[in-house]
Amino acid sequence: MSELLSLANEFRPPAFPGSYFISFEGIEGAGKSTQIIKAKEYLENQGHRVLVLREPGGTPFGEKLRQAILNSKNDIHPVAELHLFASSRAQLLEEVTLRELNTPGTVIIYDRYIDSTIAYQGKARGLGTKSILQTHSTFPLTLVPHKTFYLKIDPETSQSRQKMRNAPKDYFERKGLDFYKKLVEGYEEVTHLFPTRVVTIDADRSIDNVFHDIKIGLDQLISQSVGVHE
Ligand code: TYD
């Protein structure tokens, strides 16, 4: 773990005064999309310019990779998966995120980022956390958000929420309960590797209760940073 911790310590949030980079994480059915909409509205009401970006995707190139992965009917080798996600990520950072953060007062909200890769490719697909961190050791992949909200639900809750939705399953949604159990273990490791960045939120509660905790995290982030830049 200590080797992993020292690798994790090399990751840094981008330094753009007055702008913030935030991400949301969690397994399928955790309610990320709903909470992202609420966070965007909350921050906009405070006068921030908010952009929501998804991974994989967010650029024309990234969206092509997204289709290639999520629509794949055949198993993709985990190493190939890792590099596809990292490719989409590097492109989005370069083409959109870094440029947009340059305008003070901007908040970029990512729907998934590197912690998904640690949980999905590192833990559930078996590549190991070290290999994920090492693959991200070159700029701009060394950037991490200022704050990450990990919406935590049980694998069983995830499966039953997916069944209720009754929508066609994508590449990862077709994996079974054991896969989801490993994802939760992967996210657990993420919270140990990045204890100040990642806030765990119990997402097996009402939408308003979950958002109440997210709001506390957002307020803390923004008030702390105001102090730093004054
Ligand atoms: P998406 O439909 O965006 O999932 P969700 O609505 O649950 O966020 O599909 C993205 C899928 O890709 C999701 O199953 C998680 C997976 N993924 C990885 O395996 N590794 C990654 O690095 C990222 C960003 C996503």
What CATH calls the topology is Rossmann fold
Task: Give the helix/strand class.
Answer: alpha/beta
Give a count of the beta strands, DSSP E runs of length 2 or more: 5
- Low-confidence runs of at least 5 consecutive residues: none
Architecture, CATH level 2? 3-Layer(aba) Sandwich
Tally of individual helices? 9
Large-scale geometry: globular
Which CATH class applies here? Answer: Alpha Beta
Report the biggest beta sheet as strand number plus sense, adding barrel if it closes.
5 strands, parallel
Number of domains in the coordinates? Answer: 1
Q: What is the name of the CATH superfamily?
A: P-loop containing nucleotide triphosphate hydrolases
The side-by-side strand order for the widest beta sheet comes to 2-3-1-4-5
Radius of gyration, CA atoms, in whole angstroms: 17 Å
Average predicted local confidence, pLDDT: 95
What's the order of the H and E elements? HEHEHHEHHEHHEH
Helix content: 40-55%
Bound molecules: thymidine-5'-diphosphate
